[in-house]
Design a protein that fits this description.
This protein is 38% helix and 26% strand. With 240 residues, it is of the alpha/beta class. A hairpin with a 2-residue loop joins strand 9 and strand 10. It starts with a strand and ends with a helix.
């Protein structure tokens, strides 16, 4: 379980995340939703240990991790994968070499990298694009490469930061179906940040609604869609 207790993150005088407490169950697809500027991406960066909170604690499996440094921090980060809205792929590398990058960093041998890349290309259903350059790939195919790269070192947790926001509706549905399928096959915990309620409805089991850096509502997706309590959730669902 991923737990946040009274987490606050500031940038100068701006309080991006304020006194947030959350519990993400193992093996769940947990959504974090809010309007632009609500603090979603900052919260994700704190959860994934890319940023340290200014106050509060982040725990994985009951162990505090926000205070880790050096090799211990790197070791914890290797248990996580991250995918982004803009893919964050290397334009100088083809699909296979983008996927191989974290394996190179981890010191995996060439033969083992090749085998793992082939496995991942099959897993994300683009084995025929192995040698394709990025300019030859559609947005959905680029996101599949990014997902494969995020899974390269067998993470326990997959973080998705607006991963479908740049995609058309049909491609969004296919990427969400892929994430849901991978979560089930690999036993991943998925934390998904979005401003799109339809994304939450499609694959999430639990959701936290963020407004001005604070969690204003959290719970099972069905309950919040059926009976939203917070003003922010009602506005996003267009419920009076």
């Amino acid at each position: 379980m991923i737990e946040l207790e009274s987490v606050t993150k500031r940038y100068g005088s701006l309080v991006a995340v304020e006194d947030v407490s959350l519990a993400v169950p193992d093996g769940s697809i947990f959504g974090v939703i809010g309007k632009s500027g609500a603090g979603k991406s900052t919260l994700l960066r704190v959860m994934s240990l890319l940023e340290r909170p200014d106050a509060g604690e982040v725990r994985y499996g009951g162990e505090r991790v926000d205070t880790l440094i050096g090799a211990a921090l790197l070791g914890q980060r290797r248990k996580m994968g991250m995918i982004f809205q803009n893919f964050n792929l290397f334009s100088s590398r083809n699909a296979a070499n983008n996927i191989a990058y974290p394996l190179e960093i981890a010191g995996i041998s060439h033969a083992d990298r090749e085998a793992r890349v082939n496995e991942l290309l099959e897993l994300v259903q683009i084995a025929d694009k192995k040698t394709a350059r990025l300019r030859e790939l559609s947005g959905g195919q680029k996101q599949r490469v990014a997902i494969a790269r995020a899974l390269a070192v067998n993470p326990e947790t997959l973080y998705c930061d607006e991963a479908t926001s740049a995609l058309d509706p049909q491609t969004t549905r296919s990427i969400l179906a892929l994430i849901k399928d991978l979560q089930a096959k690999l036993g991943l915990t998925v934390v998904l940040v979005t401003h799109q309620m339809e994304v939450i409805r499609a694959i999430c089991s639990h959701v936290a609604v963020l407004d001005s850096g604070r969690v204003v509502e959290t719970g099972e997706v069905g309950r919040i869609f059926d009976a939203p309590q917070s003003k922010a959730a009602k506005e996003m669902l267009n419920v009076c």
